[in-house]
Automatic annotation (TrEMBL):
Pfam family, one: COesterase
Protein name per Swiss-Prot or TrEMBL: Carboxylic ester hydrolase
EC number in record: 3.1.1.-
Transmembrane portions of the chain: 6-29
Superkingdom assignment: Eukaryota
Amino acid sequence: MKIPVLWRWGLFGLLVVSILLTVFLVIFLRESPDLIIVNTPVGSIQGMRATNGDYNIFLGIPYAKVNESNPFGASTPYPKFDNVFVANDDTKICPQQESDGPSGVIDCLHLSISVPDSAASSPLPVMVWIHGGAFESGNSHVYGTKYLVRHDVIIVSVNYRLGPYGFMCLDIPEVPGNQGLKDQVLALRWVRDNIEAFGGDVNKINIFGLSAGGHSIDFHILSDTEILFNSAIIQSGSSLASTVFTNHRKTAPIDIAAQLGYSTSSIYEAILYLSSVDPKLVITASRTLNYSYKPCTEIKFDGVESFLTRHWINADTPKVKGMPILIGYTEQELLMRYVNPNAFTNFNAIRNRLSETFNFDEVEIAERVETIRNFYFGDNTNITYDQMWEAVHFDSDYTYIYPTRRSINKYVASSAESIFFYVFAYNGSRNYQKFSNNESIGSACHGDDLGYLFDLKLFVEKPTPEDQLMLDRMTTLWTIFAKYSNPTPEVSSLLPVQWPSLTAESYNYMTLSEDMKVGQRPIHERMTFWDTFYKQNRKFEKGFYENE
């Protein structure tokens, strides 16, 4: 009987075949047009080819690990991979309340990377996106990157913990506060240490974000941590925005546990209990209590890395010295809040906003409310839907626009390399908030600029020629700034106007609408009113200390 050759070779033959198969598989994976492996300091990461452009994607890479026995505390860097990590799923989100109920998992500290083909020939600038959502909601995977990567930049989008898991501030070493912002720090360190393997330029790391993402960037500028980015784009964001302030309840774990049927007077017992509970139940219980979670001033503890130990009202911004910053807001930030006549039933917006950021007694707040009402609404003591636009102006100014101006003034005082200031005023069919609310009146409002930077699933129709122009213009301005620290180093048919940087004397800004228009000191009268108001009431601001 003739014995097969392989059998005659015995174990040696099997070993040879095994080695050949392994080599074949490695070569196949590396050479396959749909599977890409990158060797990084933390191990090998397998991505895949994008289906809508000339770029590769690496989805859901874990950058940090949450302590399961205390998911409300600090995260730690994710350990190195023992095997090839398959980065093909970015659908995990951090615990939060969505429109259809609570969702999310504790294992959510992931980032995704989009790498254009041009990264193979030379290192590319890196843009790290921090999503918004009031520090309570949001995720990275809804922001499609195809419009940005075509400009030869690498895009990184980051998940970070939210709500009670990310921003519970208890003044104890185990839960000192700002865990979500510290997650972002770990993500930025991961990018610094690993992005070169993907073709990124570690000397050109830009961080950009909108709303809570923009607030986050300002907090990073104010923070105790090292500088982890070279330039910043802040969209409708400031640490001084009234939406950042909240009353941090030190008994939150006890209260949430009680809501879930567990009774204790010990913070530590409550944390231990909640650590074993489904995060969705924790989110639901917290929302039932109507608790809010935001950044806070931390107490320093030995052996615990702090993020922010001085209240941001008093903090300076030395990190921005020599740093280019692009910053701005939409023309009518809070328009959507007032398109419904019901918003004017028992109108108390002025008092409510002042209560968020100032410590006034009843007499003092009544006087300030009257001052503001007279400025914005004149003799109208009964504010109704007829004063909609005045209400939009007041709330937009107080909540986002003037805080942005205050942050800009801090950056100027700290000698930022250059500041490019903008007002987004375009009203098109990709305005995110307006499209979501089926509204078309007025100018751009909060979040409307998202549709001209990202490929959002909300928009299924092909952009109109006008919208395509704005999309091309916005993505070009943003990415050129990331490359050259200047959004218009030269003019072109797409960018026909030179964008001058801002100084304390000129206060130049660019209006981004159907056309690009340069101006100086937008809404000057309204901003002067708030300059005076804050100067007169500085000592009443929450967090203000006279000796700082």
